[in-house]
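@channel anyone free to eyeball this complex?
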Amino acid sequence: MTDIGLRMLFGDRAKYAMLVSGVCFATILMTQGLALFFGILGFSYATMTNIRAPIWVVDPLVQQAGDNQPLRDTDVNRVRSVEGVAWAAPLYVGNAQARLLTGGATQPLMLVGLDADTLAGAPTKLVEGSIHDLRQPDSVVVDARFLEMMGALRGVQLKLGDAFEMNDRRAVIVGIAKVAQGMAGATYVFTTWDRARHYAPAQRRMLTHVLASPAPGKTEAEVAQAISRQTGLRALTEAEFKRMSARWMLFNSPIPYVVGLIVGIGFIIGLGVSGQTFYTFVLENTRQLGALKAMGASNLKLALMIMTQAGIVGVVGFGLGVGVMSGFFAMLPEGRAPLVLLWQIPVIVLIAITLICMGTALLSVWRVTRIEPAIVFRA
Amino acid sequence: MLILLRRFSLWAALLGIVAVVLMVRQTTAIEPMPPPPSVPVQKPTARVIAAAGLVEALQDNTSIGVPVSALVKRVLVNVWDKVEAGAPLLELDDRDLQAQLTTQRADLRVREAELTRAKRQHDLAQSLRASRLVSQDESDTQADAFAVAQARVDSARATMAQTEALVERLTVRAPIDGTVLQVSTRAGEYLMPGASSAPILLGAIEEVQVRADVDEQLAPRVKPGSKAVGYLKGDTQNPIPLEFVRIEPYITPKRNLTGSSAERVDTRVLQVIYKFPMVPTPRVYVGQQMDLFMEE
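replying in thread with the prediction:
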């Protein structure tokens, strides 16, 4: 009986292809939308993708990664004095302007000042140069995209060893790093914390974050709690800070609404398309189903058959859909497209596809139970 | 059921699912936490108070001053010179005083000549008085003239001694045994008393001290006499054991160690003084920044 169902399904190649491509199309639509949504949320903590530390200590009023509230210089030592902290390092993150030595227009950038002793939070992927060269005077490590943008927008191709200017001070490129794109396409320039004070526009306090690490044998969460309790500052583990930033963006920025709307519509259209195609398939096969019924097939057997058909169409369509999607993702330039494929996404999509296939199948079954075998002989 | 295995679409779907699993792992992979590029400082014990410090000469650095506004005639020492208390460091221009000395010296010779004359007349009057050739009155007058002449010579000598003392004051001397840490003046420069930067910085550096700034919020945790280790800025591998000296009784506004003048005071710090001998390698320099960990 199942074999008959499968033969019925595969028998008409064109119809089968149409069914599967409908589901495939719906899968692509839903997966891509959801991946885009989480990708855009991921921009909210791009800083933490590029600057790595187990624990981030910030001002208690800070709500998200992009909010750089100044701390007091002595706060580094207060964090260091907390039991369970292996090391603590100062960090400055702020906006600065780059200018070519020859003068002319400026280029905005994200300036990161690292602790000169440990260079904690330094970029890990250096294309050229060495991160330890940051200890030389006037040295900076730049984001590869910063050079591209300087090249594209200012017409000057800077390379390793070249200099530019920030806040009227010389900055020599001693390294080129590969980092993820920041919010609003920001490019990064890394230097030491002491020098960042001079490169950034003058501010009263130049410590925005304290990076810390738990001592061996202690968990990040427990040390973060100890820091919060003893210093009155807000200490967060990397994961907590990311979650907090993403949540902040979800509720305070229009982007998730816009993207969410697109994703939602994509989801509904996807469901509609796949449901509709399968329902049409069953409708078109009404005569055959009637014939089977006339031959003595019970309603239960017919229902099982339709369910199997729906299941196969669902799984094949889903598989092809996510396959096409993965191929598409793999072709995108790395780090540019904001697509994050959480494992939950394919699972949610699979559940949605299954539900809609089974739903339409049930609808079809309901129709089939009501057909009279005599339908075969009509028209 | 075997019909399923012959369908290409089914295999393609399976491939798609494998691909998406790989893709999920690729886009959501969080790289393992990288350690800092340089090994961070190791805390000596679990419970410590961390502070930032500045290396100074023992008993603080001595900023040498000048007594009067004057040109520099000669600088007598170089950096690294070891000097004893009283050793000359600087000579200031003393030409004006030397000019005065010349006239004063001439004046003294005049007074001395006058004294010689007064003495001779006084002696003559004395001998003639004995043979009653001059009156008592005349003899007394000569005696008074002699006494005045003598006083005038003393006065002229005192004036010269004063000028010589003023000349001597223009040679600036070391008030303590120590090493010359900085010489920021050259012959011919004009120095003024009370200028913000000292021409010569002196300090005893066989042993040096570290002035550690502890945030006032940590101040209650600091215990007098606690052991500490220090790490020079830029060196996280060589701890320097420190000996407790004292806690300053007054909480001061934080001195900015990184040099930006834009910073206003919003932190007060407790200063704790530690000392250590200057022998260990790596070499330590006065003025260097240090990270301290005090045992609690």
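from a first look: Chain A touches chain B through 73 residues (CB under 8 Å).
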